[in-house]
Design goal:
With about 260 residues, this protein is an alpha+beta fold. It contains 2 helices and 12 strands, in the order αββββββββββββα. It starts with a helix and ends with a helix.
């Protein structure tokens, strides 16, 4: 029994040593695969500052990620300070290639036009995650980036949580949104604070006043076969629908207040 225990311990120790060496050896390649997939989706370029891969613990991390494109079609710039992917431990990540939880923080995304997305079908499948956590993210959409005739739109996300996601675009996680605290900046200096919990969206500030206006919203599930451009158009239509619901709810509240009901 002692000999068997020593053999088992030796095998486990050797396996852990192999995983540690493999993590150090392939961390850079894993980071390049992430960058290549993101860059391919917009036919742009990427660069990554640093990366690490812990196959024993089950964690992949990279920092200072930049993906961009700037040509006659338009401009897209995505900068991410930190990305961490929670992987299956003890080397199982080699056969189960999916993030259990993808944590992203320090995001700056600027988009000039949806024509930048998916001009041709990518060769590789999009990244997937069972859950996504976003902290400190800023999204800037240029005039007419989503809705023709609109002005520039800015979104500052303090914290957001989403469920299982297929990352066709950097905004695909919105289809699986579970919770969010954010600030929306619209043309003419309009600022709105948005809070989403349990299927209810609350808005306050500028157009809505200090008292939050709450409406139930139904976020459509992402179409597994939709390309990036289709997903963004769906998000744009959802945004118009939600805005209409909020304005209608605010009008009802105002009328109720005026009538003393």
């Amino acid at each position: 029994m002692r000999r068997v225990a020593l053999i088992v311990a030796g095998v486990i120790g050797l396996w852990i040593a192999v995983l540690v060496a493999a993590g150090a050896l392939y961390a850079g390649r894993a980071a390049d695969q992430v960058g290549e997939r993101l860059a391919e989706s917009i036919q742009g370029t990427y660069r990554i500052g640093d990366s690490s891969l812990a196959l024993v613990r089950g964690r992949f991390a990279l920092s200072d990620l930049h993906v961009g494109r700037d040509d006659e079609v338009g401009r897209l710039s995505l900068d991410v300070r930190d990305v961490a992917c929670d992987l299956p431990p003890l080397g199982l990540a080699a056969v189960m290639r999916m993030c259990r939880t993808l944590e992203v923080s320090g995001v700056d995304l600027e988009v000039s036009t949806i024509a930048l997305f998916q001009l041709k079908k990518p060769r590789r499948p999009p990244l997937r995650a069972d859950a996504i956590v976003v902290d400190d993210a800023k999204i800037a959409l240029a005039p007419s980036a989503l809705v023709p005739g609109s002005g520039a739109i800015g979104v500052a996300i303090v914290h957001a949580e989403a469920g299982p996601t297929r990352l066709v675009t950097p905004l695909s996680w919105l289809f699986a949104l579970r919770a969010m605290d954010a600030q929306l900046s619209l043309p003419a200096g309009i600022a709105i604070r948005l809070t989403y919990r349990d299927g209810m969206l609350a808005a306050q500030g500028s157009l809505f006043g200090a008292r939050p206006v709450r409406v139930p919203i139904s976020i459509p599930p992402a179409d597994e076969h939709a390309d990036a451009r289709t997903q963004l158009r769906t998000l744009a239509r959802l945004g118009v629908t939600v805005a209409t619901q909020l304005v209608a709810a605010r009008a009802k509240d105002w009328l109720r207040d005026q009538l003393g009901l």
